[in-house]
Design a protein that fits this description.
The protein is an alpha+beta fold. It has helices at residues 21-34, 127-145, 157-163, 178-189, 210-219, 232-241, 251-262, 368-371, and strands spanning 46-55, 59-68, 71-72, 76-79, 82-90, 96-97, 99-100, 104-111, 120-124, 168-175, 197-205, 222-226, 245-248, 269-286, 290-303, 307-312, 315-327, 330-331, 334-336, 340-345, 356-365. The protein has eight helices and 21 strands.
Length: 372
């Protein structure tokens, strides 16, 4: 930092308190002017992927920052191992734009898959060339992913380490957004142990699918889900293949659980028992209750005041309690599969049609084998 004799400009800011924002912008302009940082808007666009996700209605969407050249609708490009053609672009206000000059962040639609946050994207003159490069890079990634290792579960990890069976712990990471993939992968890769190495063999966004379970079965890996849930068929396949799936909503809990398992000090786990699922068909505004979801119970039963989870595209949006449960105009204790009902969520109203509400309870399970 300049204050300590260095050459890096530092500005104290607080976005929450709106302090130092103007000074930061002034310093950015000053550094750009002093270092003669310029971009040529006439070149083919290039830049960096800031974030990426899979949207149910729009498909893969990437937020990119154009650092040189001008990105236009119709341009063919490559972003990491993903190729695409710009079908549409949206600016920070959500408005459609036809082109994005240097230093412009835009959401890009038209990708063939979800790129990694931090991937470099570059516009190419020929679309077939972008597809060819993307296919080659994906093949290399698959070859790296399918390297096999020892099969194990987190509950038996310490025992296997002591026996010398496990030299490497392979993990598959699935999260809700690409930024979480990067953070989790870094944290897990930094876990150090003299007897076992932690390796993330695959990390991506979206729900845990059958492909993830099959990859875990083939590579004897453990699946880590962060703010996502396994699809119904994937959960059934995981149970059949005996693949260990660990679900979390706090980043550091993941690392702490892995460390505890490696040290043979894994705490008693809490097993989730599914009670039922309901699909949201419509929403209604009810006085005193707020937004109520009109649902059809498709599996099991929904119990009033039970723990519930709201899923949108298999991504966890809310976890809390079912504050109200009604059949027609009467309050009921539970509603079974095949019946319609109205469900109100405690302190949450952002419910949309096609969302899924899962009811569950949590039971404590002691890992006896670790303490024998």
């Amino acid at each position: 930092a300049e204050d300590w004799g260095g050459d890096t400009v530092c500005v104290q800011i607080s976005a929450k308190q709106r302090l130092g924002i103007d000074e930061l912008l002034e310093m950015i302009l000053l550094v750009a002017d002093m270092q003669d940082l310029k971009a040529d808007p006439k070149l083919a666009a290039s830049g960096t992927v800031l974030e990426a996700r899979l949207d149910r209605s729009r498909g893969p969407v990437a937020t990119v920052l154009v650092q040189n050249g001008t990105l236009r609708v119709g341009d063919a490009f490559i972003a990491g191992a993903v190729s695409g053609k710009v079908r549409a672009m949206l600016n920070d206000a959500g408005d459609k734009v036809q082109e994005a000059p240097p230093a412009t962040p835009v959401e890009v639609l038209g990708l063939q898959g979800v790129p990694m946050a931090g991937d470099i994207f570059k516009v190419l003159t020929e679309e077939w060339r972008a597809r060819q490069i993307g296919a080659y890079r994906q093949q290399k990634l698959r070859e790296d992913t399918l390297q096999k290792s020892s099969r194990l579960t987190l509950d038996h990890l310490f025992q296997k380490i002591q026996e010398g069976v496990v030299k490497e712990l392979s993990l598959i990471v699935k999260t809700d957004v690409q930024g979480s993939v990067e953070a989790l992968t870094q944290i897990l890769s930094d876990i150090a142990s003299p007897k076992v190495k932690v390796r993330v063999i695959h990390a991506s966004t979206g729900a845990i699918t059958e492909s993830d379970v099959l990859l875990a079965a083939a590579t004897n890996s453990i699946i880590i889900g962060f703010n996502v849930r396994p699809e119904k068929k994937a959960a059934e396949l995981a149970e059949k293949e005996e693949v260990d799936i660990r679900l979390h909503t706090v980043v550091y809990n993941v690392a702490n659980e892995i460390k505890a398992a490696m040290a043979g000090m894994l705490e008693p786990t809490f097993r989730e028992v599914a009670l039922g699922r309901a699909e949201v068909r419509n929403t209604f505004k009810v006085p005193k209750f707020g937004i109520v979801a009109g649902c059809m119970v498709t599996e099991g039963r929904i119990v009033r005041n039970s723990d519930v989870r709201l899923l949108r595209d298999n991504v966890v949006i809310y976890t809390g309690k079912a504050s109200s449960l009604r059949r027609f105009k009467e309050d009921v204790g539970e509603v079974k599969s095949g019946y319609e009902c109205g469900i109100g969520l405690e302190k949450f109203s952002d419910i949309k049609p096609d969302d899924v509400i899962e009811a569950f309870k949590v039971e404590k399970v002691v890992n006896k084998e670790l303490y024998a």
